[in-house]
Amino acid sequence: MNMMHPARVAAALLCAGFSSPALAHNPMCECKEIPGEQIQCKGGFSDGSGAPGVTLDVIGYDETILVPGKLGEDSTLTFKKPSAEFYVLFDAGPGHVVEIDQADIQPQ
Known about the structure:
globular
């Protein structure tokens, strides 16, 4: 009978446990134009969880922050559409960043 060493079994189980949550926690962010020259963005994660309090900044092409923000309790942020060219940066930490260019923001 082929038996694995208990330390190898424990290591394999630990690795399996650590790999699955990382795969199910990818950042997601969607922005759309709404009436009144407004943009509404909603952030969250691929496991279905929301992202209240996560940083969502509106940044000009010259890298200046046009609208500093954080997602509200409903994981959304609404702001006036800037006159300058911009992109949206959803930043939930290292490896959890999404950029959305203004050209990809469509009316609802």
